[in-house]
Design a protein that fits this description.
single chain; 20 helices; mainly alpha; 532 residues
């Protein structure tokens, strides 16, 4: 457990630093292009295209397939060196091919994701896309390198490297503002120089991030060399596993395309694509810091236990990780819900935009706790080399996401469309985690539900009065339209104050009732504090 705690702290500290610098990056980007504008949505679509491919590579293939396979290969006489070299060579070739095809299809890709854009908005987004799509190769290479390091229990570099990307982006976006002013919301005012500086900065940060990761191979005890002799790498076995995950992520991308097209109809003065992305970024702050930092080391350990056939230890891993994640993620949900308006002000250009964007964040937060549970459940299937079952419960979720987005687009006014689409996505995710939990429980003849489900209930009961205390504090300090939304800095300060109040009351209530999960959770939290 101590090794997991140390790994969690290392990943968590890096994730916090990465996310904080990522917030600063987005603040500068919003200052350059606006938060609810046609130009902002045009860049959001173009810069999201390589991220969508990255999602296929990272979530679809690497997490589900590569980590368990490398854990198994570690038992080979060479410690997995030959397997990793073959895998790395194969991945690099595939990434180059995927990047080339995407560059050729850039105009079509933009049209697919934003069919309701105006003509000049489509042209601007396509110009951005030509600069952004090379990110596919570097995102994929970064993900491949990072997951290999994670599988070798070298957790830090993969988490800390994005900070360099954010620093490069902040500098480039800042230079854009100095040269051209901001926010540049008028689509027709964009010149080739403006397009190049903004989009090339976004891609340059990813390039530097990937290069930095290459300096840590010696710590993993690895020596990589090009190896095109792919026979013997287990391609047939890997492709059989990857086939289901590939279909699963394709289904997710199709649902995302539906969402993006629905939201493109609201582009202009209302929350749309860029505003939804920024709300999702706020939503992902606690998910990334808490779920990924604690869950990633558990997944490596869980994979080892599953590979050895120790099902009892897998069940214990599931229950322990969900209880630990739940303690933190429930508190984060309550705090972010109370602070939604000042938090939204961080990524908007005024109080009115913050009030319009906050419902989008609230709608996403409905599924924050269920997604934390899903992280553990889904990766347990992966640890048993079962990618077929996650495909089916994810396919159900994707169908609900797409159907919900279309329904929202048909009945909801454009000013509330982004919130409606986010809410349907949350509903779909809740259904997904319920189905996934039932299926895993049947497979393993129990997953300790009687242990972790009541714990989540206790956390939720403590979060209700904690949230009430936070909301009362917000009203006493001027309400959602008070000083906390007067500027970006005020939004940060206000969100911090409200978060501290909610967390203090939450911990106090759990301590009063002597909740058993409190002591180990606080011990893990103290690891993040600086030593004397």
């Amino acid at each position: 457990m101590s090794s997991i705690g140390r790994a969690s702290v290392l990943i968590g500290a890096g994730t916090i630093a990465s996310r904080v610098s990522g917030v600063l990056r987005t603040i500068v980007l919003v200052a350059a292009i606006g938060s609810q504008s046609r130009a902002g949505d045009a860049f959001a679509v173009a810069n999201q295209l390589p991220n969508n491919i990255y999602a296929i590579i990272s979530t679809g293939l690497l997490t589900a397939v590569v980590v368990p396979q490398i854990v198994k290969a570690a038992a080979h006489a060479d410690g997995g060196q030959a397997f990793i070299s073959k895998l790395f060579t194969l991945g690099t070739v595939g990434l180059l091919g995927a990047t080339a095809l995407a560059m050729i299809a850039a105009p079509l890709l933009v049209q697919v994701y934003a069919s309701k854009f105006t003509g000049d908005q489509l042209a601007l987004s396509t110009a951005f896309a030509y600069w952004c799509l090379p990110q596919i190769f570097f995102y994929g290479l970064y993900a491949l390198l990072g997951e290999i390091l994670n599988a070798r229990r070298v957790f830090g570099p993969y988490t800390w490297a994005p900070i360099v990307n954010n620093v490069v982006s902040i500098a480039g976006f800042g230079a854009f503002i100095l040269l051209f002013g901001g926010p540049q919301e008028n689509v027709g005012a964009w010149t080739p120089s403006m397009i190049t500086l903004l989009a090339a900065t976004a891609t340059g940060g990813i390039v530097v991030q990937t290069v930095v990761l290459m300096f840590f191979w010696r710590r993993a005890g690895l020596t990589l060399r090009p190896d095109f002799r792919w026979k013997g790498v287990g391609l047939r076995h890997i492709s059989r596993l990857a086939g289901w995950t590939f279909l699963m992520v394709v289904a997710g991308q199709l649902a995302g395309i539906v969402q993006s097209n629905v939201l493109s109809g609201a582009s202009g003065n209302d929350p749309a694509i860029f505003a939804s992305q920024n709300a999702w970024l706020l939503f992902m702050l606690p998910y990334s810091i808490i779920v990924l930092s604690i869950g990633t080391p558990y997944f490596t350990q869980l994979s080892e236990h599953a590979a050895a056939g120790r099902d009892d230890e897998v069940r214990a891993d599931i229950a322990r990780s969900i209880r630990t994640l739940g303690f933190f993620i429930v508190a984060a949900t309550a705090a972010l819900a109370v602070a939604a308006v000042p938090a939204s002000r961080i990524f908007t250009n005024g109080p009115e935009e913050a009030l319009a964007a906050a419902p989008v964040l609230w709608s996403f937060l409905v599924c924050l706790v269920p997604l934390a549970v899903l992280f553990v459940i889904q990766r347990t299937f992966y640890a048993y080399n079962d990618t077929r079952t996650p495909f089916f419960f994810t396919l159900l979720q994707c169908a609900l996401v797409a159907g919900g987005a279309l329904a929202a687009g048909a009945v909801i006014d454009r000013s509330e469309l982004a919130a409606g689409v986010a809410l349907t996505q949350s509903f779909a995710s809740i259904v997904q985690v319920i189905v996934a939990t039932i299926l895993l429980r049947r497979r393993l003849s129990g997953i300790g539900t009687g242990s972790w489900l009541p714990a989540l209930g206790r956390f939720a009961l403590a979060a209700i009065p904690a949230a009430a205390a936070g909301w009362g504090t917000l009203l006493l300090l001027g309400g959602p339209e008070g000083w906390m939304t007067s500027s970006v800095g005020a939004g940060i300060a206000g969100a911090a104050v409200l978060g501290i109040v909610v967390l203090a009351v939450y911990i106090g209530i759990l301590a009063l009732f002597r909740t058993p999960e409190l002591a180990p959770a606080l011990a893990l939290g103290r690891r993040f504090l600086p030593k004397r």
